[in-house]
Design a protein that fits this description.
alpha/beta, Spore Coat Polysaccharide Biosynthesis Protein SpsA, Chain A, 7-stranded mixed beta sheet, 3-stranded antiparallel beta sheet, 30% helix, 18% strand, globular, Fringe-like_glycosylTrfase, membrane, manganese ion binding, nucleotide binding, nucleotide-binding
Length: 371
């Protein structure tokens, strides 16, 4: 009987996730069928505080503070869409300038103010994934960072990139990460208090990341993420999963670059070890603490697998073996203030973003999740 009940619950979870996924996809597809002179035109998708776009036939868009097509006027608090410079080779000139106020794009519930927590996000990607993964990430969560950098080997018209002269491949992830940290330290250290690293298939709830960091001191040498036990004897404090994303304080970045990467005894810059493991070792040798990112109920906030895997219980044995803290599945898998999931398919980026920011059970107190 217990086995049957478990199977029933899993089936119901699968059905619910499938229904949500299908419903949102259908809505997005139908709402994007807006034609102008027989050609698909841009369609805004209501985002949190500023407009976002689905990329439709003939056009590619990006969102964010430093907009290529359109600008966000922070003084007048208006979004400028269109303009003579916005000429598409397929559709021709954009429509006349249209001014859209941010209130048109607010989420349907109140968001607690955490903008004082400044977060720079840098995201590992490569030219092959620019359109398929990096752009969906930027369309959804990554444009909500105070500054966003995509670490790659080729520039892109609609992504803020840092172009490195390295060979792409998994064996180059450590080199890309090292160059990224050095670039951030040299050029952007004073622009943020916290520095978040992610992959291009990581989905992040930036509001929850800022909430998590709001009572923490960026002058403390600490970093947070999904914590693994180290398999190496010279690393006692473990390391954070690269795919789930990890966030460093300003002091942690400073120590990593000046006390770690400048000392080959602490940081093996040419190591063939996995990027996240070697960065964890380097941070420990530089005197940076590995923090506990679980919530008050002991549930994880960073997740190194997909939402489906954690909810439905498709967790591999190695995850239980190497995770520093107990890993659960089902309703107890994840903190109510969950921060990230790895292995997020591009279309699921849009589904999650819509479901998280625009679906709210009727009668639920607007602010109860923030108390």
């Amino acid at each position: 009987m217990a086995l049957e009940n478990g199977s029933t619950r899993r089936a119901m979870m699968t059905f619910t996730l499938g229904a949500l996924f299908g419903g949102v996809i259908a809505m997005l597809v139908v709402s994007s069928e807006v034609l102008r002179d027989g050609v698909h035109n841009r369609v805004p998708v209501h985002g949190l505080g500023r407009p976002q776009y689905i990329r439709t036939a003939g056009e590619t868009f990006r969102t964010g503070r430093d907009q290529v097509r359109g600008d966000y006027d922070t003084e007048g608090e208006t979004w400028l869409q269109g303009g003579e410079e916005n000429v598409n080779p397929v559709t021709g000139p954009s429509p006349p300038l249209k001014v859209i106020t941010p209130t048109e794009f607010q989420a349907p519930y109140q968001v607690q103010e955490t903008s004082r927590v400044r977060v720079l996000c840098w995201i590992l990607t490569d030219p092959e994934n620019h359109d398929s993964k990096a752009l969906p990430a930027y369309d959804t969560w990554a444009s909500k960072c105070d500054r966003t950098l995509f670490i790659t080997t080729k520039s892109h018209d609609f992504l803020p990139t840092v172009v490195l002269n390295v060979t792409e491949g998994r064996e180059s992830l450590l080199q890309k990460s090292i160059h990224a940290f050095k670039h951030v330290y040299q050029h952007h250290l004073d622009e943020a208090d916290w520095f978040f690293k992610a992959d291009d298939d990581t989905y992040v709830i930036m509001e929850n990341l800022r909430h998590f960091l709001s009572d923490k001191d960026p002058d403390e040498p600490v970093y947070y993420g999904f914590r693994f036990n180290s398999i190496r004897p010279d690393t006692k404090n473990g390391y954070m999963s690269g795919g789930a994303g990890y966030v460093l304080s300003k002091e942690a970045v400073r120590r990593l670059v000046t006390q770690g990467m400048d000392d080959p005894r602490k940081c093996r810059l040419r190591s063939k070890a996995p990027e996240d493991l070697e960065i964890g070792r380097c941070l420990e040798k530089a005197g940076v603490m590995a923090g506990d990112s679980r919530d008050e109920e002991g549930r994880q906030t960073f997740h190194c697998l997909s939402l489906q895997d954690h909810v439905l219980g498709n967790l591999p044995e190695w995850l239980h073996r190497y995770s520093t803290y107990p890993v659960k599945s089902g309703p107890d898998c994840c903190s109510k203030h969950t921060i990230s999931f790895h292995y997020t398919e591009p279309i699921m980026m849009y589904v999650l973003d819509f479901a998280i920011h625009h679906v709210r059970p009727y009668g639920q107190c607007d602010m109860q999740d923030h108390n």
